[in-house]
Amino acid sequence: MKFTFYGQSCFQLELGGKKFLFDPFIAGNELAKDVDINRIEADYILVSHGHGDHTADLIPIAKRTGALVISNFEIITWLGQQGITNSHPMNFGSYDFEFGTLTYMQAQHSSSLSDGTYAGAAGGFILASDQGNFYYSGDTSLMLDMQLVPYYARVDVAILPIGGNFTMNAKDALKASDFIQCNNIVGVHFDTFGYIKIDHEKAKKLFNDAGKKLLIPEIGATYDV
């Protein structure tokens, strides 16, 4: 799997020849000012919840790429009103796509769109496929429901928030890695705002001391995960 980080919680995973873009928020992120959203490719766009730091660039990228947008029912309904019709609505459950089985799993977080529209319940995604398995929690606090992740898939890599305040911090993400039974973690949702600035070395040391790996990615960089 190839992981490309675009800042905050926006990233692309390349798996089985397909490109999956998650939670598009780039143009409004000063830390991602060198990323050109017009060069980002996507076959699928997955949206965990409605907050602006996850959806700000969703409509222009979806229109340009023609990617299939996958999210909860409320966000997909709202997108239809914005002219985005190549979409697939979900609620908490699983569906077999051509690329594998996708499970939309609950997250402990609020959710609304920038115009105040109710955006349904926040969630995350588990993908199980012949090419690999991953879990993206979306914005969430630490929760016992994460213990269900191995029931759906033995994940090779998990993408978890580590910034704290609005979501888990690195200490919580370490405990989450126990719950999901995955020692290969990529951190997101950090440094963008003052509330979520973190000590990178301290966070990585937490994981190293536990015999686990935490990748804190650089914006614009691509990694083999």
From TrEMBL:
Residues 7-189 form the Metallo-beta-lactamase domain. SUPFAM superfamilies: Metallo-hydrolase/oxidoreductase. InterPro entries: Metallo-B-lactamas, RibonucZ/Hydroxyglut_hydro, UPF0173_UPF0282_UlaG_hydrolase. GO terms for molecular function: hydrolase activity. Gene3D superfamilies: Ribonuclease Z/Hydroxyacylglutathione hydrolase-like (3.60.15.10). NCBIfam families: PRK00685.1. This is Hydrolase.
